[in-house]
Every structure is written in C-alpha cells, then in structure tokens.
Amino acid sequence: MVHRIAVIAGDGIGTEVMPEGIRALEAAAKRFNIDLALTTFEFGSCDYYLEHGKMLPDDWFDQLKSFDALFYGAVGWPDKVPDHISLWGSLLQFRRQFDQYINLRPCKLMPGIKSPLAGREPGDIDFYVVRENTEGEYSSVGGKMFEGTEREVVLQETVMSRIGVDRVLKYAFNLAQTRPRKKLTSATKSNGISITMPYWDERVAEMAKQYPDIAVDKFHIDILTANFVLHPDWFDVVVGSNLFGDILSDLGPACTGTIGIAPSANINPEGKFPSLFEPVHGSAPDIAGKGIANPIGQIWSGAMMLEHLGYQEAADTMVKAIEDVLSEGNNQVLTRDIGGQGNTLSLGQAIAERI
Amino acid sequence: MVHRIAVIAGDGIGTEVMPEGIRALEAAAKRFNIDLALTTFEFGSCDYYLEHGKMLPDDWFDQLKSFDALFYGAVGWPDKVPDHISLWGSLLQFRRQFDQYINLRPCKLMPGIKSPLAGREPGDIDFYVVRENTEGEYSSVGGKMFEGTEREVVLQETVMSRIGVDRVLKYAFNLAQTRPRKKLTSATKSNGISITMPYWDERVAEMAKQYPDIAVDKFHIDILTANFVLHPDWFDVVVGSNLFGDILSDLGPACTGTIGIAPSANINPEGKFPSLFEPVHGSAPDIAGKGIANPIGQIWSGAMMLEHLGYQEAADTMVKAIEDVLSEGNNQVLTRDIGGQGNTLSLGQAIAERI
Ligand SMILES: CC(C)[C@H](C(=O)O)[C@@H](O)C(=O)O
Ligand SMILES: CC(C)[C@H](C(=O)O)[C@@H](O)C(=O)O
Question: Rounded distance, CA A96 to CA B167, Å?
Fold first, then answer.
C-alpha cells in the first residue's frame, strides 16, 4: 500500500528543516518497509504569495484532498506578508477545510535537554495538549464600526458548537484512556468569560459521565499556565479551546525546554481528509538561511505522521533515535540552540543514521 | 486630609489575610502620619449571596463611590456559588462600574523566595503586567442557539473600543517611561485572532509614535507565555488585553515563585471613581479556616494603595519590610507555602513590626 504524502516546506527555516524531516522519514520507511510517495508543492509560502497574490492556488483543495497526509514545514514571514494573511491563507485553511479538528502536541522532557524549570528531569514532564483546532476564538465573524473615529469599536465573535466541543473532548478522553495515569485536565475561564466558557465546562462534565475511569479536573487558564510552571508533573492529557490550546501547547514545550524541537499533528480523526504534521516552531526569519535551525521538530512531526498512518513501531523508532542522539550529546552533531556546534544537516544526518 | 478606605474581605482566606493587611497599613499610617479611615463592608462575599440572593446590595455603587479606595480580600467559593455568578456579581462589577480600566501587577523575584525557574536570582525578574480591565474578551454580549440540541451553538463577542485600547496603552507607555529600561512589550495574537488583534497591533503602533523614547516589541500570546519562562529578564512593562493580561499576570508571579504573595491594583487613573487593591491569589477554599494563608499579597496590595494615594515613601517602606522579613527567613515567622512553620498572624505581625 502506497501512502501519498504532500510536502509543503513553506517559509524560512521550514525549507531548511524539511529535507532533514524527509531524510529521517525515508530512513524509517526503508527500515520498516513502508511505501511512501512524496510530492512537493511550492504553494503555502510567502514567496508564492508575492508571485501570485495569494497563498494557495484556487484548486488547492482538489490538489491535496486525496493525499494521505500533509507534511508541513513552517509558514509566515511578516516582512513579506502580514501574519494574519499568510496564516489565514494557508495553515488555517488546511485546518478548517480538511476539518483537522484535533491539534495534538506532546510535551515531554527529553534526555539531554535542559528544562528551564529548576530540578526537573526526563520522566518528570510527559503530557499531551489536545487543542480544538477549527472554531472557538479563531473565528472570522466580526467587524469594525465607527471606523477611523474616536468611537471606533471592533468586534470578534467566539463561536463554540456542541459538535465542535464534544468531538475534541471525546478525542481527549479517549487519549487519556490509553495513558497510564488516565487523567484529563480541562482548560477553562468560566469565572471571567461568562458565556462560552461555562458552556465548555458543561460539556466536559457531560462527557466525563461516559468515562468513569478517567480522573477529570479543570483549571482556569490563568492559574493553569502558572501550574504548568509550578507543577508540570500534575498533567497527563490537557484539553483546551483553540486559543487556550494554542497557548498551552507553546508553554508546555517551553517548560520542557523543547520549544524549538516539539512536533504537532493537526488531525482529522475520521480520515475523511488528510491530516497535517508540522513542527511547533515557526519560520524564524531571524535565523533563516544560515543552515543552523534544529530539525528535530520536523523529524518528530514525521514520527507522528507515521504513527497516524498506522506504523507505531516505525514512529517509536524515530522518537527513540531522536532521544539517543540527544542523550549522546555529541557537540559536533547538535545544533547551537541545544548547546552544540553542529548544524541542521549534521543533526538530521545523525538521527537518520540512527534510524 | 482623611483617606476613606472601604474594606471588603470577601471569602475564604480573604477574611484571614485582611486583618494582616490592615495591621500593616495602620503601622505605615502611624509612621508616616497618614490619616486613614477604614469602613468594613460585609457584602461582596458568597455568604452574603447565600443570605441575600445577590453578591451586592442594590445601592452598592452609592455606598462605595465616594471612598478614596477599596481594599479587597478575595472572592469566590465554588461550592457555595458558581464562580461566574460570584465574580460577575462583585469584583467584575467594581472594575466596570468604577471604570478601573487598569489592572496593574508587579512581577518581581523577591529575596528568599525560590523561583521555579532554574538559576534565577532576585534582580533577574522585575517587570509589570498592565492589563486592560473592563472590555475585550470579558464581555457579556452573546448567547446560545439551538439550545439542548445537537446543533447547539454558543457565541460570545470580544469587544474592543478605541477608547478602551488607547487608554490602557497610554498608561502602559507612561509607566514604561518611569522605568530604567523604558521598554514595552505588547501581547497580541494577530496571526490567529484576525479582527480584534490586528486592531490592537494597529493601536500599539499608533501610540508608539507618541513615545519615541520607548522601545516597543510584541509577541503572540502563545510564544509570549513561553518567553516568560525562557527569558523573564526580557520584560519591563508588558501590556495586554483583558484575557491576555489575566493570563500573564498569573504566569508572571508564578515564574517569580510569588503566586501566593503577589499584589494587584485595579485603577481608575483619573480618580473619578475609587480604585481597588487586592492580592492576586483567590479565596483558596482548600486552606481556608486554618489561619495558615500567606498575608503578603494583601499587605503588598496595601502598599500599592498607599502609592496610589500619593504616599510613595510609605509604600516603599511596606515593600521593604516584606523584603526584609523574607530575606531574614525566620522559620517561626514564615508561612508554610514559603517553607516556614509560622502562620498568617506571625508573618503579618513580623511585617507590621518592621514597618
Ligand atoms: C476571578 C477572575 C474573574 C479574575 C479575572 O479573571 O479577572 C481573576 O483571575 C483576576 O485576575 O483577578
Ligand atoms: C501561526 C498561528 C496562526 C498558529 C496558531 O495560533 O494556531 C500557531 O501558533 C500554531 O500554534 O500552530
């Protein structure tokens, strides 16, 4: 069975880490006899925008819909195209049109990586953030009134649907069932955001009834961010709305010292549309073009993609290869952001060899 | 000149730390010859709600409006009254009706307090979070449709006005001018929240033109929370919307290890209405009634109140007294949350004596 993968490198360091992501994927494919067919697309980048006046061609949906997965680098280059145009014109389109309603991000303290939190060791921090990925605070409903005057008012609607909330909760509860601690934490703000967030809480309480084996707690987002720093060991599966999930899935990796290497999956669990796999980091214009970006986020995202396609062992092997190379701590291999003197290529090659 | 202070202890540990807040205030008043007249109110607590069916009497506004300041403990007790009712019925009313459009919170690593961040010492972290405190994501506009059915949809409107945004920015820029580093960081999310947040950015850029002496930068809220953990030394004055400010002003104190002792001010800068001073911590039902709550947040809030009333030296003396008692590190005096064996009273008394 051939798995067709659409490759979109995007902008900045996206184009530099992607070759290493592919190298690792191909190594895993070879070792585990997985048949991958990669097709590269130029669209979904700011350079494409500058040439065509849009981030994606009109028929992008038809071009991509029959792929088994999308492997994405990073998008955005504010000096070329404002972020809200480049992002809404590409990544956020994929998430919505392909109904990738789950954004899944592991937060795991890896060997050889120093956590910014005092006294935390590998094993201490190991949880998932499950983020609603299509609705909520990221809405396109709203507008401006009294434009350009003193009385100017700007409105934006947060939209939560029962369908949208329930399906992400269900995914998160199911994930919690596969974990040893069987614990789910809900991110809320029902004490301040008085309509949507009490609704979120209601749905969590309702869903919890169907999962008596899962220990459920909830925190308001303000104190929850504090607890990520103070008690990262409390968490197992954390579920949040689009915005809260976005925040927690940057903060979580930051607490594990892995903001530059964390992976993410944008999943359509039913498989009706392709899912998308991308590193958490952005396009990093400041270091782009130097060949020094850390490719681990891209490689780890590739592992999540193989897992999604059903190749658990291959995925585990890729993650293990990352851990081994990190544990080894060879200065000539590691990139600068994690204390080495190597570059994108040296680290990518070392991991691919290990696989 | 007599300064009339309305005292509302609220719920849980609010009622325990308030006497220590008052003790310290009275010590400072005595030493610096400040004429304070305190009046205690029972309303604004969940017990009041249980008796009266509302958090505040109908004429609360008239009862309180001519005070020079409100000194608040903590409100909320979810087992008695749901948070969105107790909070919207009290604290959030004060903030709105008294147009306390600034929420100001210092994030300062204090001597003797261990930061959860590795290798950070007092002096390394010292910034302010300035939060818009009346509009934005905390709106009461919205509702539910198709209630109780599969198609259920819940809407809540974020509302930003030019008046609302500009005045908080102005306050933050002015504050930055008083600081040695003259730096302002704006919290945004204009890459994802595509209407209100680009507007926020626009207003920041506009306001910045009037403050050429201030170095301005901005981060999306997701990476900003990460940077609080990774680079807390980058920040001087951080300004955010109601929700973003709320998150950052819990996360900031968490990074300084002071979530239980941080103060906050809800300010109406024009002095048209009384401002309100309260600790960042909540009513903490879990430890209420034991006399072990840390009173520093309440005392430090009292210092912010004196500063607001024009007594800078008295305020500085109160903060210095807190720092001295913390530096001294007497186990018999400090509360358990900061590693001692003392209680609310011992710590409160020690600080008052020092003042
Ligand atoms: C209790 C809650 C409504 C409140 C808020 O979100 O404003 C609190 O978190 C705060 O920061 O003062
Ligand atoms: C780039 C931005 C729109 C995006 C988001 O907020 O979803 C990013 O932060 C992410 O988490 O993938």
Answer: 36
On average, the pLDDT of chain B sits at 96
Q: Total domain count for chain B?
A: 2
Per-residue pLDDT for A171 more than 90?
Answer: yes
pLDDT digits (tens, 9 = 90+) for B170-213: 999 999 999 999 999 999 999 899 999 999 999 999 999 999 99
Set of chain B residues whose Cβ sits within 8 Å of the Cβ of A196: 142, 154-156
Chain B 215-234, residues with CB within 8 Å of chain A CB atoms: 221-223, 225-227, 229-230
Q: Locate tokens 């697309």: which residue?
A: A41
Cβ distance A137 to B193 less than 8 Å, yes or no, reads yes
Give A120's pLDDT tier (boundaries 50, 70, 90).
very high
| C-alpha A230: how far from chain center | 23
The pLDDT score that the predictor gives to residue B259 is 86
Give residue A260's pLDDT band: very low, low, confident or very high (50, 70, 90). confident
B7 pLDDT exceeds 90? yes
Judge if B116 and B248 occupy the same domain: yes
Do B37 and B108 fall within a single domain? Answer: no
- Measured in Å, residue A65 CA sits from the centre of ligand 1 at 44
Q: pLDDT tens, B259-317?
A: 889 999 999 999 999 999 999 999 999 999 999 999 999 999 999 999 999 999 999 99
CB atoms B247 and A160 under 8 Å: no
Same domain membership, residue A307 and residue A348? yes
Query: Which residues are B2's β-sheet partners?
Result: B35
- In B210-279, beta strands by DSSP E: 215-220, 237-240, 263-267, 275-279
Can you spell out the DSSP letters for B119-159? T--TTT-EEEEEEE-SSBT----EEEESTTSTT-EEEEEEE
Are B109 and B132 part of one and the same domain? Answer: yes
Q: Name the pTM for this structure.
A: 0.95
pLDDT in the model for residue B184 = 98
Q: Is A194 in the pocket of ligand 1 (CB under 6 A)?
A: no
Range 83-122 of A in CB contact (< 8 A) with B: 83-84, 87-88, 92, 114-119
pLDDT at B84: 81
Q: Which of A206, A229, A264 is the last residue of a domain?
A: A264
Contact present, A332 and A323 (Cβ < 8 Å): no
Q: Are B115 and B173 part of one and the same domain?
A: yes
What's the CATH code of the domain at A4? Answer: 3.40.718.10
Q: Is B156 in contact with A229 (Cβ distance < 8 A)?
A: no
Residues linked to residue A55 through DSSP beta bridges, in sequence order: none
Domain-ending residue, one of B214, B230, B259:
B259
Are A156 and A223 in the same domain?
Answer: yes
C-beta atoms of B152 and A158 within 8 A: no
Neighbours of B104 (CB within 10 A): 26
Predicted pLDDT of residue B171:
98
Note down the domain range covering A51: 1-101+268-355
Q: Do A172 and A275 share a domain, yes or no?
A: no
Ligand 2 atom with least separation from CA of B191: 3
Query: Which tokens hold the place of B247?
Result: 């998150």
Tell me, yes or no, whether B233 and B291 share the same domain.
Answer: no
